[in-house]
Amino acid sequence: MRNDVKMRELEGLELYNEVVLGQLSGLTEIEENQTRFQVDILKGQKTGWFYDHRMNRARVQHYAKDKRVLDLFSYVGGWGLEMATAGASEVFCVDASEQALDWLDSSAEMNNFKNITSIQGNVFDVLKHLRNEKEKFDIVIVDPPAFIKRKKDFKEGMNAYRRVNQMAMQLCTRDALLVTASCSHHMPSDTLVQQVQSASRHLDRFVQILERGHQGPDHPVHAAIPETAYIKSFIFRVTPA
Fold first, then answer.
1. Which residues are CB-contacts of 174 (< 8 A; sequence separation ≥ 6)?
2. Domain count, the chain
3. Which residues pair with 29 in a beta bridge?
4. How far apart are CA 218 and CA 2, in angstroms?
5. Does any domain span residue 61?
6. Angle 54-61/78-85 helices, nearest 10 degrees?
7. Which of 30, 119, 155, 176 is the most core-located residue (most Cβ within 10 A)?
Protein backbone atom coordinates (compact mmCIF):
# COMPACT_ATOMS: atom_id res chain seq x y z
CA MET A 1 0.00 0.00 0.00
CA ARG A 2 1.58 3.22 -1.22
CA ASN A 3 0.03 5.98 0.87
CA ASP A 4 2.93 8.41 0.71
CA VAL A 5 1.58 11.10 -1.63
CA LYS A 6 1.80 14.68 -0.33
CA MET A 7 -1.90 15.28 -1.00
CA ARG A 8 -2.69 13.17 2.08
CA GLU A 9 -1.06 15.80 4.28
CA LEU A 10 -3.70 18.32 3.19
CA GLU A 11 -6.32 15.95 4.59
CA GLY A 12 -4.41 15.39 7.83
CA LEU A 13 -3.63 11.77 6.90
CA GLU A 14 -0.36 10.01 7.70
CA LEU A 15 2.12 9.00 5.00
CA TYR A 16 3.20 5.36 4.91
CA ASN A 17 4.19 2.39 2.75
CA GLU A 18 3.08 -1.05 3.88
CA VAL A 19 3.59 -4.57 2.56
CA VAL A 20 0.19 -6.13 3.21
CA LEU A 21 0.97 -9.77 2.47
CA GLY A 22 4.24 -11.69 2.17
CA GLN A 23 7.68 -10.16 1.71
CA LEU A 24 8.94 -7.61 -0.76
CA SER A 25 12.46 -6.43 -1.48
CA GLY A 26 14.36 -5.28 -4.54
CA LEU A 27 12.85 -5.36 -8.01
CA THR A 28 9.67 -7.17 -8.99
CA GLU A 29 9.08 -8.64 -12.44
CA ILE A 30 5.81 -7.79 -14.17
CA GLU A 31 4.53 -8.38 -17.69
CA GLU A 32 2.45 -6.08 -19.90
CA ASN A 33 1.62 -6.48 -23.58
CA GLN A 34 4.02 -9.42 -23.99
CA THR A 35 6.89 -7.41 -22.47
CA ARG A 36 8.67 -8.12 -19.18
CA PHE A 37 9.76 -5.32 -16.85
CA GLN A 38 11.77 -4.94 -13.67
CA VAL A 39 10.01 -2.44 -11.40
CA ASP A 40 10.57 -1.20 -7.86
CA ILE A 41 7.19 -1.27 -6.15
CA LEU A 42 8.49 0.30 -2.92
CA LYS A 43 10.64 3.10 -4.36
CA GLY A 44 9.36 3.67 -7.88
CA GLN A 45 6.95 6.42 -8.91
CA LYS A 46 3.39 5.90 -7.64
CA THR A 47 3.01 2.10 -7.49
CA GLY A 48 6.17 1.56 -9.54
CA TRP A 49 4.21 1.08 -12.75
CA PHE A 50 1.51 2.95 -14.68
CA TYR A 51 -1.02 0.30 -15.68
CA ASP A 52 -3.59 2.92 -16.67
CA HIS A 53 -1.87 3.41 -20.07
CA ARG A 54 -1.55 -0.29 -20.98
CA MET A 55 -4.40 -0.22 -23.56
CA ASN A 56 -2.96 2.88 -25.23
CA ARG A 57 0.47 1.27 -25.43
CA ALA A 58 -1.10 -1.83 -26.96
CA ARG A 59 -2.73 0.29 -29.68
CA VAL A 60 0.54 1.97 -30.62
CA GLN A 61 2.19 -1.47 -30.92
CA HIS A 62 0.10 -2.00 -34.06
CA TYR A 63 2.09 0.76 -35.79
CA ALA A 64 5.58 -0.04 -34.48
CA LYS A 65 6.98 -2.74 -36.78
CA ASP A 66 10.21 -1.64 -38.48
CA LYS A 67 9.80 1.90 -37.14
CA ARG A 68 12.39 4.12 -35.47
CA VAL A 69 10.86 5.20 -32.15
CA LEU A 70 11.59 8.03 -29.70
CA ASP A 71 10.05 7.60 -26.22
CA LEU A 72 10.12 10.87 -24.24
CA PHE A 73 9.67 10.96 -20.46
CA SER A 74 10.17 7.21 -20.72
CA TYR A 75 10.48 6.39 -16.99
CA VAL A 76 11.21 2.61 -17.01
CA GLY A 77 10.36 2.18 -20.69
CA GLY A 78 6.70 1.23 -20.70
CA TRP A 79 6.11 2.66 -24.15
CA GLY A 80 9.55 2.17 -25.66
CA LEU A 81 10.18 -1.44 -24.71
CA GLU A 82 6.70 -2.45 -25.79
CA MET A 83 7.41 -0.91 -29.19
CA ALA A 84 10.52 -3.10 -29.38
CA THR A 85 8.36 -6.13 -28.60
CA ALA A 86 6.15 -5.13 -31.55
CA GLY A 87 9.11 -5.09 -33.92
CA ALA A 88 10.44 -1.50 -33.86
CA SER A 89 13.82 -1.29 -35.59
CA GLU A 90 15.33 1.14 -33.03
CA VAL A 91 14.05 2.64 -29.80
CA PHE A 92 15.49 5.69 -28.01
CA CYS A 93 14.24 6.34 -24.46
CA VAL A 94 14.76 9.72 -22.78
CA ASP A 95 14.26 10.47 -19.09
CA ALA A 96 15.74 12.78 -16.45
CA SER A 97 16.05 9.95 -13.89
CA GLU A 98 19.26 7.94 -14.05
CA GLN A 99 17.71 5.37 -11.70
CA ALA A 100 14.67 4.89 -13.96
CA LEU A 101 16.92 4.34 -16.97
CA ASP A 102 18.97 1.79 -15.02
CA TRP A 103 15.74 -0.15 -14.43
CA LEU A 104 14.86 0.30 -18.11
CA ASP A 105 18.22 -1.09 -19.20
CA SER A 106 17.73 -4.10 -16.91
CA SER A 107 14.34 -4.76 -18.48
CA ALA A 108 15.76 -4.41 -21.99
CA GLU A 109 18.44 -6.98 -21.15
CA MET A 110 15.83 -9.32 -19.64
CA ASN A 111 13.85 -9.17 -22.90
CA ASN A 112 17.04 -9.63 -24.93
CA PHE A 113 16.51 -6.34 -26.77
CA LYS A 114 19.64 -5.12 -28.58
CA ASN A 115 18.12 -2.05 -30.18
CA ILE A 116 17.40 0.13 -27.11
CA THR A 117 19.31 3.35 -26.44
CA SER A 118 18.64 5.19 -23.17
CA ILE A 119 19.45 8.90 -22.89
CA GLN A 120 19.57 10.60 -19.49
CA GLY A 121 18.75 14.29 -19.38
CA ASN A 122 16.16 17.03 -19.44
CA VAL A 123 13.76 16.15 -22.25
CA PHE A 124 13.66 19.69 -23.67
CA ASP A 125 17.46 19.81 -23.78
CA VAL A 126 17.68 16.37 -25.39
CA LEU A 127 15.09 17.33 -28.00
CA LYS A 128 17.15 20.39 -28.93
CA HIS A 129 20.30 18.24 -29.21
CA LEU A 130 18.57 15.63 -31.39
CA ARG A 131 17.24 18.38 -33.66
CA ASN A 132 20.73 19.84 -34.03
CA GLU A 133 21.99 16.35 -34.90
CA LYS A 134 19.24 16.14 -37.56
CA GLU A 135 17.81 12.95 -36.06
CA LYS A 136 14.43 11.77 -37.38
CA PHE A 137 11.93 9.24 -36.04
CA ASP A 138 8.90 7.42 -37.42
CA ILE A 139 7.08 7.43 -34.06
CA VAL A 140 7.58 10.00 -31.31
CA ILE A 141 5.87 9.37 -27.96
CA VAL A 142 5.23 12.30 -25.61
CA ASP A 143 3.87 11.12 -22.25
CA PRO A 144 5.04 13.68 -19.67
CA PRO A 145 4.26 13.89 -15.98
CA ALA A 146 1.37 16.22 -15.17
CA PHE A 147 2.38 19.70 -16.34
CA ILE A 148 -0.78 21.11 -14.70
CA LYS A 149 -1.01 19.88 -11.12
CA ARG A 150 -3.09 22.83 -9.87
CA LYS A 151 -5.50 25.21 -11.55
CA LYS A 152 -3.10 28.10 -11.12
CA ASP A 153 -0.56 26.19 -13.23
CA PHE A 154 -2.92 25.97 -16.22
CA LYS A 155 -1.44 28.65 -18.50
CA GLU A 156 2.17 27.67 -17.88
CA GLY A 157 1.36 23.97 -18.20
CA MET A 158 -0.64 24.45 -21.40
CA ASN A 159 2.34 26.23 -22.95
CA ALA A 160 4.60 23.35 -21.87
CA TYR A 161 2.37 20.82 -23.66
CA ARG A 162 2.45 22.95 -26.82
CA ARG A 163 6.20 23.45 -26.66
CA VAL A 164 7.13 19.80 -26.11
CA ASN A 165 4.83 18.61 -28.89
CA GLN A 166 6.22 21.23 -31.25
CA MET A 167 9.78 20.14 -30.52
CA ALA A 168 8.75 16.50 -30.94
CA MET A 169 7.22 17.21 -34.37
CA GLN A 170 10.51 18.74 -35.51
CA LEU A 171 12.00 15.23 -35.22
CA CYS A 172 9.24 13.51 -37.19
CA THR A 173 9.82 11.91 -40.57
CA ARG A 174 7.27 12.51 -43.32
CA ASP A 175 3.90 11.03 -42.25
CA ALA A 176 5.32 10.06 -38.86
CA LEU A 177 3.14 9.32 -35.86
CA LEU A 178 3.06 11.60 -32.84
CA VAL A 179 1.66 9.83 -29.78
CA THR A 180 0.85 12.44 -27.16
CA ALA A 181 -0.76 12.08 -23.75
CA SER A 182 -1.66 14.02 -20.62
CA CYS A 183 -2.32 12.66 -17.15
CA SER A 184 -3.44 16.03 -15.78
CA HIS A 185 -7.15 16.16 -15.01
CA HIS A 186 -6.93 19.97 -15.35
CA MET A 187 -6.08 19.60 -19.06
CA PRO A 188 -9.28 19.05 -21.10
CA SER A 189 -8.98 16.67 -24.03
CA ASP A 190 -9.98 19.31 -26.59
CA THR A 191 -7.44 21.76 -25.18
CA LEU A 192 -4.64 19.22 -25.60
CA VAL A 193 -5.64 18.77 -29.24
CA GLN A 194 -5.64 22.55 -29.69
CA GLN A 195 -2.08 22.78 -28.36
CA VAL A 196 -0.91 20.11 -30.79
CA GLN A 197 -2.69 21.89 -33.64
CA SER A 198 -1.10 25.19 -32.65
CA ALA A 199 2.33 23.56 -32.61
CA SER A 200 1.77 21.99 -36.04
CA ARG A 201 0.67 25.27 -37.62
CA HIS A 202 3.84 26.95 -36.33
CA LEU A 203 5.86 24.31 -38.21
CA ASP A 204 3.67 24.31 -41.35
CA ARG A 205 2.48 20.77 -40.65
CA PHE A 206 -0.93 19.13 -40.62
CA VAL A 207 -1.99 16.70 -37.89
CA GLN A 208 -4.66 14.04 -38.30
CA ILE A 209 -6.16 12.19 -35.34
CA LEU A 210 -5.98 8.46 -36.04
CA GLU A 211 -6.99 7.23 -32.59
CA ARG A 212 -8.06 8.54 -29.18
CA GLY A 213 -7.28 6.70 -25.96
CA HIS A 214 -8.09 6.88 -22.28
CA GLN A 215 -7.34 5.07 -19.03
CA GLY A 216 -8.06 1.38 -18.64
CA PRO A 217 -11.37 0.15 -17.15
CA ASP A 218 -9.69 -0.67 -13.84
CA HIS A 219 -9.33 3.12 -13.47
CA PRO A 220 -13.06 3.88 -13.99
CA VAL A 221 -14.47 7.34 -14.56
CA HIS A 222 -17.12 8.45 -12.08
CA ALA A 223 -19.98 9.97 -14.07
CA ALA A 224 -20.42 12.75 -11.50
CA ILE A 225 -16.70 13.51 -11.09
CA PRO A 226 -15.16 14.64 -14.40
CA GLU A 227 -11.72 14.92 -12.77
CA THR A 228 -11.56 11.10 -12.72
CA ALA A 229 -11.19 11.16 -16.52
CA TYR A 230 -7.56 12.19 -16.20
CA ILE A 231 -5.83 10.21 -18.98
CA LYS A 232 -5.96 11.65 -22.49
CA SER A 233 -4.07 9.95 -25.31
CA PHE A 234 -3.94 10.62 -29.05
CA ILE A 235 -2.23 9.05 -32.04
CA PHE A 236 -1.64 11.80 -34.62
CA ARG A 237 -0.28 11.48 -38.13
CA VAL A 238 2.02 14.44 -38.88
CA THR A 239 2.07 15.42 -42.57
CA PRO A 240 3.62 18.30 -44.53
CA ALA A 241 1.34 21.27 -45.12
1. 239, 240
2. 1
3. 38
4. 17
5. yes
6. 40
7. 176
Along the 241 residues of the chain, how does pLDDT read in single tens digits? 888 888 788 889 999 888 899 888 889 999 999 999 999 988 888 778 999 999 999 999 999 999 999 999 999 999 999 999 999 999 999 999 999 999 999 999 999 999 999 999 999 999 999 999 999 999 999 999 988 888 888 889 889 999 999 999 999 999 999 999 999 988 899 999 999 999 999 999 999 999 999 999 999 999 999 889 999 999 999 999 8
Containing 227, the helix (H) or strand (E) segment is: none
Please tell me the distance from the alpha carbon of residue 50 to that of residue 144, in angstroms, as a whole number. Answer: 12
Q: What is the CATH number of the domain that holds 188?
A: 3.40.50.150
Inside any domain, residue 86: yes
Under 8 Å CB-to-CB from 133, ≥6 apart: which residues?
Answer: none
Domain carrying residue 93: 27-240
* Active-site choice (183, 196, 199, 207): 183
Strand partners, 94: 72, 119
Decide if 14 is inside a domain: no
Known active-site residue 183: yes
* Residue 6 falls inside a structural domain: no
**In whole angstroms, how far apart are CA 54 and each of 59, 78, 142, 175, 218?**
9, 8, 15, 25, 11
- The DSSP code sequence of 74-115 is -TTTHHHHHHHHTT-SEEEEEES-HHHHHHHHHHHHHTT-SS
- Largest alpha-carbon pair distance within the chain? 58
